[in-house]
Fold this sequence. Notes:
Layout: H1 46-49, H2 54-79, H3 93-100, E1 108-110, H4 116-121, H5 126-133, H6 143-146, H7 157-178, E2 190-195, H8 202-213, E3 218-224, E4 227-228, E5 231-232, H9 233-236, H10 244-248, E6 252-256, H11 260-275, E7 281-286, H12 305-312, H13 316-326, H14 332-355, H15 361-366, H16 374-388, H17 391-398
Parallel strand pairs: 1-2, 2-3, 3-7, 6-7
Antiparallel strand pairs: 4-5
Amino acid sequence: MGSTQLPAPGLEGMQADRQIVGDEPSTEMVQLLGPDGKLGADPVFSDYAKRLEPEQLRGFYADMAKIRRFDQEATALQRQGELALWVPLTGQEAAQIGSGRATQPQDYIFPTYREHGVALTRNVDLAELLRQFRGITNGGWDPNENNFHLYTLVLAAQTLHAVGYAMGIQRDQKAAQDQGGSKDAGKAAVVAYFGDGASSEGDVHESMVFASSYKAPVVFFCQNNHYAISVPSSVQTRVPLANRAKGYGFPGIRVDGNDVIAVHAVTEWALEHAREGNGPVLIEAYTYRVGAHTTADDPTKYRLKEEETSWRDKDPLERLETYLRAEGLADDDFFAKVKADGDELASYIRRTTLELKAPEIRASFENVYAEAHPLVAEELAWFEEYSAGFEGDEEEEAN
């Protein structure tokens, strides 16, 4: 398969190069920063990487280290009974921080339930994420404040929501132009995050059909972490997931999901493409879930230790640290401060989580229907009677 340089966003007749899905399935991917910490070149995306200032690169590392520390603390809280469940992200920091930092404030994000790093880039209070996993709220934060939607626990449902929102953006912008506004005013795009397991859901197929048909400004960002709980991605698909975009008529890009620089470059390109009215893009971030699917999972039951070890050698933080040190962009003081900041965040998360109190149970029943319902009232009465049976036990424990 020959190589053709990828045109700039906005050009019609996009052809495939070695990273963009073409006539034949391709397993090659965009990579700029290798596992050895050395920065390579790419005929298309190096130009995007050159835009990055040293401060941004240091920021990428600080973000990845901070969210990994947060992940460790949240896991510990769950193990200590303070959270009902936790969904770890360790190993996927570069995919999340790189893509999240490529978005602009006007863009809207539809996450699944593992996008803690993306939440960080959108300035969501990370303690708010834990309210849902502590079981005291159905959401936990105001999605309008940061254009970061509530976590979606129903697999792939958010991809439909994302495309609908993107189509709404289209119509709002057209209406504004019809009223004499600038065609460049308020340009925004949507990013829909999902995993390799969710890619097998019908919702994803329907979303891509609509997105392509209406050229909706949405970037489908698939974090291929190799396992849909216990099912390997090799069972989910016989070709790279990025290849699926070709069937819908829009670009698909496979990127090294442990390379934060490449992820940022690819996502920046895709968002520009979408904002300019050229339709959707599918990004497959090829990464790895180092830990369990959730804290209720045991990955040793379905994967080998050797596999995990090989992926730990591709650690996204270590490769960026190697590059920053080699280029003289960061020193021991910087990394010491990053660690201290992470520990401070962990302390805040623990303190805040332990202070979170469950709402009055009556409020949960009152929010089922807008008006009083006899069946709900009956269930509340039963629950209160049931709960009253434990009051003596609680008094004994207190004494």
